[in-house]
Specification:
- It is built from 13 helices and no strands.
- It has about 290 residues and is mainly α.
- It has two domains: about 130 residues, Four Helix Bundle (Hemerythrin (Met), subunit A); about 110 residues, Orthogonal Bundle (Helix Hairpins), CATH 1.10.287.70.
């Protein structure tokens, strides 16, 4: 079967793609590790620049360093587009959008003052650490939690609706009890409902507290109910996690590769995968499309 012309006719592009998008080789690991260090340093620089004492004193230094990082990330972004078979797929992907947003603020700061602080979005690029240290399995565990949340969304919706009824009821009662006291902080039903939410969730800011004996008794009831509020959604989600864990366990046994599809730039394929599970194109060059 024929191989993709974009790579068979251009060994340089093939090699660059292997280094930039994959972490199975020494060169790929070194590239990603270096990139992560640069991202981390750039985020630290943005944080330090936001401190007035540092920002005023080292303004010129921070400006030079910001442009240095931005130029490097711009080159990296251009290379990712260059080596991808379908550049639009990468540009519109999650990492593609994050990569673009991480360099735009510096250029935008030429016209809009202060926009460079949005470069903190570069921290999202640290998610690439999952590729470098082969922690893709942890992403699968994360997807298990997401799937469990989606599966239990109806039960959680009913539970949240019930909680809203409870806090509205107790907040209204507390307003009737404490609202007549001069100088009370229970001066409206919405504020009383806020108190009920804080108390029921066991947060307990302490900014509002009942003064009457009956109000304190009611508070004690809500505090005890708060433990049930925490336990119920945990039990619902845990049941869904247990029911979905077997399927996830089977996926984890296969292992996850760090190899990225040359066509859509998606990752997370099984180690024995031949074709991309997202776009259907061949992953390796030895298998034609």
């Amino acid at each position: 079967m024929a191989q993709p012309k974009e790579f068979t006719s251009n060994p340089l592009k093939e090699r660059l793609h292997e280094i930039i998008f994959e972490a199975d080789t020494k060169a790929g690991k070194l590239f990603d590790a270096t990139l992560l260090v640069l991202i981390l340093l750039s985020v630290i620089i943005v944080m330090l620049e936001s401190v007035p004492s540092y920002g005023d004193k080292y303004h010129t230094f921070f400006l030079i360093v910001e442009w240095f990082f931005t130029i490097i990330f711009t080159i990296e972004y251009a290379l990712r587009i260059y080596v991808t078979v379908k550049p639009l797929k990468y540009i519109t992907s999650f990492y593609g959008i994050v990569d673009l947003l991480s360099i735009v603020p510096t250029y935008l700061s030429i016209f809009v003052s202060g926009s460079q602080y949005f470069m903190i979005i570069r921290a999202l690029r640290l998610l690439r650490v999952f590729r470098i240290f082969k922690l893709g399995n942890h992403l699968d565990q994360g997807s298990l939690i997401v799937e469990s949340l989606i599966a239990s969304r109806r039960k959680l919706t009913v539970f949240v609706f019930f909680v809203m009824l409870v806090v509205t009821l107790f907040g209204s009662i507390m307003y009737l009890i404490e609202g007549a006291i001069p100088g009370t902080k229970f001066d409206s039903i919405p504020r009383s409902i806020y108190w009920a939410i804080v108390t029921l969730t066991t947060v307990g800011y302490g900014d509002i507290a009942p003064q009457t004996s009956f109000g304190q008794f009611l508070s004690a009831i809500i505090m005890i109910m708060g433990y049930a509020v925490i336990a119920v959604p945990t039990g619902i989600i845990s049941a869904e996690v247990m029911s979905n864990s077997r399927n996830t366990g089977k996926r984890l046994k296969k292992g996850v590769s760090t190899q990225a599809c040359r066509h859509c730039s998606k990752e997370g394929h099984d180690r024995d995968a031949i074709y991309c599970k997202y776009c259907g194109e061949s992953i390796n060059l030895q298998y034609g499309p």
